[in-house]
Amino acid sequence: MYQSLSAVHSTVSSLKACQADLATGMDIVTSVALDLIEDQDGEENSGIGKMEALMLECAKLDREIECFVDTVQQATAEVTAQQQEALFTISSRVKENFTEKIAQLSDADLQTHQKIVAFKESINRSHIQASHESRNIEELDEDLAVTQTQVNFTCPLTQEDMVNPVKNKKCNHHYDEKPIRILIETRRNQNKKCRCPVVGCGNKDVKESDLVPDRTLKRKSKST
């Protein structure tokens, strides 16, 4: 009897390990969805809907595993307290009780699953952030369109005259050194790439190694 119950406990442990892997997979799906939103600048993406559907399927599987594990643990506890003959009916009792519990579950309840709630909250926050960033960039573009000349001494980040202008070797845009380095560091801490703050620039990955001092521009700014 105890040898048979040991096999049951081993199976339950394996199922719990599957749940842990499933939770990790759901975290990865959430991370990929956030990357999609960032790449699309907050625009609606059909891929997000597909990922949400995948998250719901994972949540449903996680719930069924949890329900099955609870049923098995309850049945084995009863067998331990009864005669050995009860062990021979454990399979049928687990199947019957599990079927009853599953029938009582609703897909609507999946919306309260911890990972689903976290997924939706993260997606909403990312959409809001992307929308704010897009609005700020549009406003910056309007301001620059009015004041921009062939050589602009205004930093696109601070909207103030540059103190230590640096040039981006990739896109040839200029920024004040301190604010661009702060922005790069901030985005790095968020595990995200730093987009060039100049509106219309296609450079989505500004690195500190791309920045070089522009002494010529610095001399011109001092002479004006």
From TrEMBL:
GO terms for cellular component: nucleus; Smc5-Smc6 complex
Main location: nucleus
Domain SP-RING-type intervals: 140-224
PROSITE patterns: ZF_SP_RING
Record localization: Nucleus
A Gene Ontology BP annotation from the UniProt entry: protein sumoylation
One Gene Ontology molecular-function label: SUMO ligase activity
Keywords: Metal-binding, Nucleus, Transferase, Ubl conjugation pathway, Zinc, Zinc-finger
Homology family: Belongs to the NSE2 family.
Name of protein: E3 SUMO-protein ligase NSE2
Native species: Hippocampus comes
